[in-house]
Structure formats: C-alpha cells, structure tokens
C-alpha cells in the first residue's frame, strides 16, 4: 500500500530563515515523489518532482530511499512561500494513482 | 484552453439528499482523479480513471459514493443519502499519462455542505 506522512500540520518560520517540510513515505516498489502547493485562493499545483531534480522557487527535495523520505527545503524563506504544501507519491512504472499526505501549512513571518 | 472545470462551486444540501458533482477535464487528458479535501484530513484519494481501463475505486469511503466518466471526458461524482461528515471540498484533477504519472492539473473544487 502507498502511504505518505507529513508529520507537521503547521510550520512557522521567519523570513530569511531556512525551511524544511518533512515527508516520509511507505511503498514497497520504486516510487515517484512530488510536492504540490496551494497558495491562498489559488488551485493546487505542482511544485516539483524528484525525477526532474530541479530547483523551483528556490525549493529542492531529495529522494532518500534509505530513509524513505522526500523532505522539501529552501535555504532562505520568503513571505510569498506561505501556503499549504502536500507531498505525494505514485507507484511509478505505470501505477499512476497519486496519494497525498495530510499537508503542512507553512507560514512565513515578516 | 481552459483548465479543469468543476461545478457547482458551492453546494448546500440537507442530510439524506443525493448530490452530483461534475468535472470537465483538460481536453486530451486521459487520466482523471477525484479527491476530497477536508480540515485535518488532508487530501484524500477517492477514485482514478485512466483511459478505457477499469477505474481504481479503492478510495471511495462507502457505497454511497460512486463516479463515472462518460466518453473518456466528463466525470460525475455522486453521493447518495448525504451525511454531515461528507461536508468537504471535492477536487477533480486531470493529467496526461506518459510513462508514469504526469503533472496533475486541479480544478477549483466543489465545496459541499451537508446540513
């Protein structure tokens, strides 16, 4: 079974401070991992995926298969980063069902 | 072109009534998903359609919930005999499937309130 755990429902940091949103997963096969973000009054949208190895809006995430984690990081938080962040997992290799975690609400304080 | 469109955007109903929620995916997208978003529960998977394959219904919480996708395009989520715990935002998403899960494009959601 696919499972995604985001242990922090709320996370608050000051502008300019580093941010790390935690994500752990459970899946027996080779997963695809994603981060989705929902800004206030906007639709849920893709932020980044592990296979792209990109940095989007200063955020990065590394898939650690040993620790079954896919934590989202940004070295210097900005106020516009305040949003709801969801980690998501797909089984990959044709298993397309995308399962989301419970989400973390990130607040960046000025 | 337009993104994923959902209707109604808001629905208030009485306990015990049936409701239908509609989703128009992006043209050409073969995969369609329904999720439920409620406070404290995050984003809960309900059902997934991919092309002509049998849908993955593993997330439907009870037999009061059903969904269909006609002609590989528009989808309708039906909740029969609604209960107060069904109150939530129901999100639809579509994607292109190519060698794995593509980027999901979400609609704005249908907010359901059961009195």
Descriptive overview:
Chain A has 110 residues and is mainly β. Chain A contains no helices and 11 strands. Chain A has strands at 3-5, 10-14, 19-21, 24-26, 32-38, 45-49, 60-61, 72-74, 83-92, 95-100, 104-109. In chain A, strands 2, 5, 6, 9, 10 and 11 form a 6-stranded mixed beta sheet that branches. In chain A, β5 and β6 (45-49) form a beta hairpin. The N and C termini of chain A lie far apart (41 Å). In chain A, 35% of the residues are buried. The mean pLDDT of chain A is 91. With 115 residues, chain B is an all-beta fold. Chain B has strands at residues 5-7, 10-13, 19-24, 31-38, 42-50, 65-69, 75-79, 88-95, 105-106, 110-114. In chain B, strands 2, 4, 5, 8, 9 and 10 form a 6-stranded mixed beta sheet that branches. In chain B, strands 1-3-7-6 form a 4-stranded antiparallel beta sheet, with no helix packed on it. In chain B, a hairpin with a 3-residue loop joins β4 (31-38) and β5. Classes of the chains: A mainly beta (110), B mainly beta (115). At the A-B interface, β5, β6, β9 and β10 of A face β4, β5 and β9 of B.
Which chains make the largest contact? A-B, 23 and 25 residues
The proportion of residues forming helix of chain B, as a percent range, comes to under 10%
The overall pLDDT of chain A, averaged over residues, is 91
Separation of the first and last Cα atoms of chain A: 41 Å
Number of strands of chain B: 10
Radius of gyration of chain A: 13 Å
What is the number of E strands of chain A? 11
Number of helices of chain A: 0
